[in-house]
Protein 1
Amino acid sequence: MTDLTPISFADTDIDQIAGHAGRIAVLIDRDGRLDAGARRVNKLTRGGLARLIEGAPFAKLKPGDAVAMAYPGGLAADAVDVVCLPKGADRHVARRAGASLAKLRGQSDVLILAAGTRRVAEVAYGVALRDYRFDDHKSDAEARKGAVRVMCSKPDAAQEAYAPLMAIAEGAFMTRDLTNAPANVLTTTAFADQLAQMKSIGLKVEVLNEDDLASLGMRTLLSVGQGSDSPSHVVVMRWDGGKKGAAPLALVGKGVVFDTGGISLKPGAGMEDMTMDMGGAGVVSGVMRSLARRKAAANVVGLVGIVENMPSGNATRPGDVITSMKGDTVEVINTDAEGRLVLCDVMWYAQDRFKPAAMIDLATLTGAIVVSLGHENAGVFSNDDAFCAAFLKAAKTEGEGAWRMPLGKAYDDLLKSRIADMKNIGGRMAGAISAAQFLQRFVKDGMPWIHLDIAGVASVKTDTTLAPKGATGWGVATLNRLISDMFEKD
Ligand code: BES
Ligand code: MN
Ligand code: ZN
């Protein structure tokens, strides 16, 4: 797994500034006031820092942005990174400030002079999240080096505030690594094996194989994977940090390691992007990792359906009728609407076995949600207003885009089949909603449920504030916050 940049916190020692090799960062409010560390930098640079702050480059900075003063005379450092961080900055600005530093960092050691800055842990979290590179397959990848040291007025408190954030960043890195990994590397079995390794951090992990799935009756899931030479798996991860016996939250993820569309083959252009079609399972895995890392006081069970959707002589055909674990029959009109066929069985199994207090599923489910919401927001569908409101609040707090979409009988009617209990597609209109309606048919009465269609947000083609282009790790922070808001209060 891609390692987090090590970040440490210590008391301010301005005598270390002159000799620090690497980069030095100062956090400056709009008013340009210099704290003790910045004053020392200014003195050593013979007023260079003050001139920069008084000039246009600093005035133009938005809160959270940074400008570099390169090869400053009087310092051993290669650069002084000047960040605009107003006193009352919220967590989003503090995280952006950290992200700005991470972008400038390259491989250098960084010394952040944070003095009494509030939200110093959030700055560190921003550094950690933005300092990500997926270079597993670059033959010229340099060994990652360089550490970040933060000098601040209350290092112990900062360290304590950073620890749970670091756990979340670690989870997000796992999600990104999984989602970025090519499908010949992250095969179904490699994915399951990697999850099994999380036993070492205290999760209970069970890997179900095709025989297990067949005995459970997960025919719709198996029908998706049967065209692939890689075997299908369901992996169950449990974190029991809450009250003994308390009903868990269930997280269910779509883990299609590659989606060719099957016999309803996708067009060639852009098909390579479907290596991220296990993004929902990637988020579930990353959340489970962070819960274990921060020893969350909650019971959470994560279940992922891991399959590969390939065309072959043994693949499911359009027109086939499959019986789900629930017992409902599905007429497969389009083998490219496979995610729902995977999820419906895993969702049913999750409810049947774990009797959860609530259930959230995550999936890169439809292109239609990308048409609706672009890459800014995940589609949120729910049968429970209070649960949904809590989720949207958590997403807002974490700055992860999420937008509620409707459900309703008229959309459900789109799934009527002439020969079976339902079709697996509802037609061109409202594609993301009819997909959600399909899933809702597998939600038991009274079960608070949220479906997150993350097709637009799991992986993006441009850099974002907290991630380079590629997999974002969207959802790991929000779900952690939701879990601590709803399940870790006694
Ligand atoms: N994995 C795709 C959805 C997707 C599209 C994810 C773009 C990420 C980016 C899903 O399995 C799919 O193929 N959906 C079809 C459904 C259709 C056949 C009803 C789609 O969206 O076209
Ligand atoms: Mn598909
Ligand atoms: Zn898919």
Note: The radius of gyration is 24 Å.
Protein 2
Amino acid sequence: MHHIDWLSARQRMVERQIAARGVRDPRVLEAMMTVERHRFVPEDVVEFAYSDQPLPIGHGQTISQPYIVALMTELLNPQPGDTVLEIGTGSGYQAAVLAGLVSQVYTIEIVEPLAEESHTRLLDLGFDNVTVRCGDGYAGWPEHAPFRRIIVTAAPPSVPKPLLEQLTVGGRLVVPVGDAFQELQVIVREESGYRVQRSIAVRFVPMVGEAQRH
Ligand code: SAH
């Protein structure tokens, strides 16, 4: 139906958009090379699956630009035994990228049809270590906490406290913080507090729900 060489398109994406911009972690590059991004975008935009941009996935939401997914994954520095929490499942693409790098991914999506679609998609594609739940990610997922890694892919005005609390000591949280303009932050939990590292300016959809009341 589509006469597109997906593998070559993916290779070009990794070389020109991701490695060329400085993402170096070989495990991240490998994951971006492995996960079939074209399975995560709607049919009407599938020809742009490997282009250098976010794409609409319905319900006013987007799948992030490939470079941003790769950068956030590298900043998260996921390790093989880790349990990861993601807030903002969207298409399920970021969760799928993480699934190959860690032992378990828990992901929360507030828009019910998106949660259902990505749950079905991830099952169909054989990602059996990703659990999708519909709900407000502000509260994290206490039943599975603490997490060694937490990644937030919608922007809260300030970092949700429950997410900080559900991080292990030594754990890392990657989150775009701010309103219209956001800064990507890496927050590392230490024995006696949190250390914040600032990364690049980014633009994400707002984290809705409880986050907007703090
Ligand atoms: N990681 C996604 C892209 C996320 S777009 C991917 O790989 O495709 C941001 C998503 O966060 C949207 O689907 C939006 O509905 C969701 N979202 C916004 N606020 C949320 C909240 N409070 N809890 C959980 N999900 C939320």
Note: The beta strands are 55-58, 61-63, 83-87, 104-109, 130-134, 147-152, 167-178, 182-190, 193-202.
